[in-house]
Protein 1
Amino acid sequence: MNDTLLSDSGRVCKLMTLAARIESFRELVEEWLRGLYHGMISHPAYEKIEQQAEDDEDAFMLACFPDAFGIPSPISYYTAELLPYLEDEFEAWERRMWDRGSLLERKGHQYHF
Amino acid sequence: MRKFVFFGGKGGVGKTTMSSAYAVKCARDGVRTLLVSTDPAHSTSDVFDQSFTDEPAAVAGESNLAAMEIDPETEVREHLMETKRAMGDQVSPAMVNEIDRQIEMAHQTPGAYESALFDRFIDVMRSADDYDRVVFDTSPTGGTLRLLSLPEYLDGWIQRLLHKRKESVKLFERAAIGNNEPRRMVDGDPIIARLEQRRDDFSFAKTTLQDDAAFFLVVNPDELSLRETERAIDQLDSYGLDVRGLAVNRLTPEPDPDESGRGATFLRERVKTERERLDDLRENFSPPLVAAVETRVAEVKGDFLGEVAAELDVDTAPDTQ
């Protein structure tokens, strides 16, 4: 590293080594901070947004296909033509509808107990 | 008169007769006319002694008249097939069964029939540039009224669905961190595109029905028909639709004064009660009486049609815009 290049002056070399060590320490701290920030702040936030998006989507799906639960819909004739394009949503929706024990359970997910 | 004219009323009151007669009247006045029948029994074919299909075809012996018959069941089947075809292209075989069931179910709901009919109405109204007048003979199910309320009703539904979908897709876009591809995107979302298409269809139907269509109700001079008509007027009014008049059909002919047999007495009694009903219609119903047509000895077709047409006091000239 820098030691070989600056070997003629021990003092400078020592200084640079110190600088390099500080540098690497700062990198380590930054990485940890980024990680902590991601893990504690940004990821849970995005996760929350995504869960909210899923909840909204579930509401949309329920409004489109209430007859899947035996509730007649005035527009199921029109929403049926959306089905071919809602494959992923439909599957995920059914799964979420089955999985979801309670609203509390779903909302409690974000705290990762 | 407005471009689109609807004849409605209870089953069997003579909507087909009235609408055919009016269409003939328009055609003979030189207005290019299309007669659209939505009656599954397709009595239009009987009136003109000619069979019609889903495509407009010229009526033999009339120079400005074309007719078509809409079959909602075929329409429902086609819609089902089309949706299934789209599914074949889009959906992985693993999900087909699940979704297939849902699609089948949607096409068996009572609303499917009306929705299909309504779609065809929109089609016909959109592509009626070749005609100056389109006369609709609406089917006798109670669905006709509901059908006309559909734009209002469905419009609200679709708006709400559209809003929900947009909200959730927007959230998905926000939830995509950094360079991650969002799970759903607003641009090119097929669901939003389709919902918007439907919304435009419905708002087209709404404005056309409110600004460009006139409604006539066919009434028989009996208590039941009168009450039914009263309700129908109220409903049409509440949808903001323009009820232009009432056409009374099947009036009993009055016997000559020198007749006094049992039949003549019966007829005279009937004429008397019917006259009371007519007075009721004139006084207590807001739309004017545009026709009072007597019962014919046989089905109205051919020559009879011209006679009935002459009795219809409805103008035929297209509105100048």
Protein 2
Amino acid sequence: MQEKELDCLGEACPIPLVKAEKAMNTLEVGDLLIISIDHSCAMKNLPEWARDNGHNVEIEETGEGQWEVFIEKCK
Amino acid sequence: MEKKQSSIAAARAARRAARAKENEANQKKASKKGKIQITLGVLLFIAIIITGYVLKVNVSSKSALMWVFGISFGVTLQRARFCFTAAVRDPALTGSMSLAKSVLIAIGIATIGFAAIHYANGDPSTAKLAKGAYYFVKPVGLHTAVGAFLFGIGMVIAGGCASGTLMRIGEGFMMQMITLIFFICGVLLGFANRPFWKDKIFFKPVHFPKEFGWVPALFLQFVLLFLCFLTVEYISRKRKQKK
């Protein structure tokens, strides 16, 4: 299992999602992608996109206005 | 399934432990931060009420009402993670329809509300166009399409429309301050050049209920909204098939 971190702090809304989508294509099934974000909007559309594509998602608030989104590639 | 969940849980636990260690080094700072947020929230809430009262006493009841509406609108946008930019962008970018649907529903509800307000403000068949709600019927034309196109490009690059940008500045997303500066520049330029647009480009305002009557106008509006919905649905489905 591989763990990949993606630093999207300071990136506005669609950028974390586009970056995550690209990173996801390089990963194998079972790998973990951890995305750091501080744009509240990405906290909604990242998990929604990932769940839509059948991946496992969890969010953790790591600081005030900062989150880590965990996505496990499932297919 | 259970095994898959646990790999996320393991990673979370590992990262939480690392953060806890980091916090231990500057513990006082970390524990203080959490309390400050609640205190500031309560103070801000009191300040909002006082400001509203001061506005009512010193300026007018209308200003106080606008203040309350503005705050409510901002809170709703923030808590709902509502974003007009994402509503028009996500169907094409990710195939997500949830925000697009909610915006269309919001316009539908607003249509009913505005119809009621306009209806209460006089008979559209009489020449009351300069008064009340009719005063706010704005001319439509080519400039609407050009402006919408420019605004669309701008808001996707900037990561927020007008309300979204303001809301995220309030959240503390500093990059959007740059957006705000240029947003203000754009608005000022637009208003400075408004006479030119008004004389040369604008058509006359079209008020559907005045032209067609109330029921056909509302019917037309909802048909148009439904067509919007079908278009968005089509784009979203196409995007999802591409993957």
